[in-house]
Amino acid sequence: MNTYTRQRRPRNSPGLLDRARLDRALDRFRFELDRRPALDYQPLPWLGLPTAARSAGVETRWTAIRDVVTAEGVTSAVDIGCNLGYFTISLAEMGVSTLGIEMFPKTYRMFLYALQKLDIRGAAAMYAELAPDSVWRIPSADCVILLSVWHHFVRDHGFEVATEMLRQIWARAGRVMLFESGQSEMPSSFRLPPLEPDPVTFFTRFLEETCVGAEIRNLGEHRAFDPAGNECDRTMFAVIRSR
């Protein structure tokens, strides 16, 4: 686990200026290498990269997230599987202190570079792969975002263990959890149960049973992509803690 925090260098130290210039050049080179041939899932418009290969649906999701966060008075958030940090950075710009957790080295490096380049206050990065014995690492926050991650838990650990992981994640959401999962488009290798009678009904009931004390709100369908790169739609839910 690695959490990024900004450290100030002492002024006028010999050699630090040259080292800082070299570090910036190396960071830029690695970022340019990582982002090619194209960004995968999220854009970074703040760095002049407004599109990504599979970014359809990012803006509609952000509109839904922003509305829920505003309505629920959220002041802190954790974005699990944050990718390049589009939602993490957007929330921080709203004044919501947000931690983005990413598990893939390439995307984590790019997210970290974006935070350093933009110098955004209120946004932080954590590099961690979540498993049944490490869910406890997730800090509590008003809002927890878990978009298109849970079906990976099911594939890696099975439905029952993944469900228990979701319960633990829900326990860390003080006001709301934003949830989305792969649906009928996912291949059998992901080991999802039959989503009967339909995905929306299944996940509504599943979230009601798993997230005790919650109101489930359907936030509509949003464009996504299956593992083969084909376009599909997924339903996003707001799991709102009863007061």
Report on this model:
The protein is of the alpha/beta class. The protein has one domain: 3-Layer(aba) Sandwich (Rossmann fold), CATH 3.40.50. 36% of the residues lie in helices and 23% in strands. It has 7 helices and 8 strands; from the N terminus they run E-H-H-E-H-E-H-E-E-H-H-E-H-E-E. An 8-stranded mixed beta sheet has the order 1-4-3-2-5-6-8-7, sandwiched between helices. Strand 7 and strand 8 form a beta hairpin. Helix 1 crosses helix 4 and helix 5 packs across helix 6. The chain is globular. The relative contact order is 0.13. The mean pLDDT is 93.
Features:
243 residues, single chain, Rossmann fold, alpha/beta
Structure in a nutshell:
The protein is built from seven helices and eight strands, in the order E-H-H-E-H-E-H-E-E-H-H-E-H-E-E.
